[in-house]
Amino acid sequence: MTQHFFPGLDGVIACETRLSYLDVEHEEIVIRGYDLIELSRKMKYVDLVYLLLNENLPLPEERAELEQELRDAYGLPEEVLSVFKLVPPATDSMDALRTGISVLAGFDPELDNLSPDANRRKTIRLLGKVPSIVAGGYRAMNKKPMVPARKDLGYSANFLYMITGEAPSPSEEAAFDQTLMVYAEHEMPNSTFTARVIASTTADMYGALTGAVASLKGKLHGGANEAVMEMLLEAGTPDNMERLIMSKLKNKERIMGFGHRVYMKKADPRALLMKEALLALIEEKGNRQLYEMCVIGEEVMKREKGLYPNLDYYAAPVYYLLGIPIELYTPIFLAARTIGICSHVMEQHANNRLFRPRVHYLGPRGLHL
Questions:
Q1: Helices 311-321, 288-305: inter-axial angle, 10-degree rounding
Q2: Which of 31, 68, 143, 157 could lock onto 173 through a cystine, CB 3.0 to 4.6 A?
Q3: Which residues pair with 30 in a beta bridge?
Q4: Angle between the N-to-C axes of helices 311-321 and 170-183, in degrees from 0 to 180, rounded to the nearest 10
Q5: b/e map of 247-258 (b: 16 or more CB within 10 Å)?
């Protein structure tokens, strides 16, 4: 039998799903039949959560019920926050997030119950608590006072409030909510595949999500939004932006925030949406040169490399204007993606087959002692 090797599993269909699909030809990210960009313009993150959990968009009373479930899940056991006070100060924020989720698993009474109903309840609990791990872990490790969750705030507003310590304005809440939506689900990236592989052993949801965090920490998957913001700060002004990128290209450095394994020859539609969100925030907050630097960078990379910006390129300055510390950009990515990853875990558990691929062996044969 002829065997074919596809490095990085390029083009290999790993599973069947009803959750999402990247239709590159039509420039559409399909979520349960809906265009993600249209959803992001017209709906809220909680609506997307409901859609992924239930296969349909919520009625007003169904949205209110889900919002209450999420509010009831806010907050963390004190023991989880205490762990962050024990880790070394230099601990990476993604390592802290991974640790927090792993410790939190022990407090879930349904940890090993893999039924659809139990998995849904665990997903709600994780959605309620992962933002507290992101914000609380950062504050604990940096010896900042804790900002407890506010149940009078909506999901996205509360998340941003716990990070910054200030209740966001309506426009800030809307921008942050939109970032959560566009990061929420994206078919089969490395972290989602990792979670499905782990779940295929009938491992629990927390274990699968912990593995996804470890995957997302890798610089070829997560971390690009942080690198983009560092580059923008290094450039400082629009005049320096092209000079900096050209210097990096001359030195064979990779420019983060450009290119994508799937969007090879077209722009990431999520990046275009975030570009609009950035411009809207700048009109309220100022700092026009930040937008101008981004545009210059986009033009240079298209001219020099034929590459288009991905989501991380424009999400980074949005987070910056919202007052979010740079080291939290990737943990927020994971927090937003929690609904997507957990939905994939639920789907894997519901129709499971253990992942067990083979290899193309290149080593010697016939050796003897």
A1: 170
A2: 157
A3: 21, 35
A4: 150
A5: eeeeeeeebbbb
Domain 20-169+185-217+327-350, second-level architecture: Orthogonal Bundle (1.10)
Backbone region of residue 33 per phi and psi (left: phi > 0; alpha: psi in -120 to 50; beta: other values) = left
Residue ranges matching CATH 1.10.580.10 in the chain: 20-169+185-217+327-350
Q: What is the pTM of this model?
A: 0.94
Which one of the listed residues 204, 312, 344, 349 is annotated catalytic?
Answer: 312
CATH number of 224-321: 1.10.230.10
Under a CB-based contact definition with an 8 Å cutoff, are residues 104 and 96 in contact? no
The reply to whether 349 belongs to the active site is no
Let me know if 360 is a catalytic residue: no
- Helix/strand number for the chain, H first, E second: 16, 3
Span(s) in the chain for CATH 1.10.230.10: 224-321
Q: Which of the residues 47, 108, 177, 260 is marked catalytic?
A: 260
Catalytic site includes residue 186: no
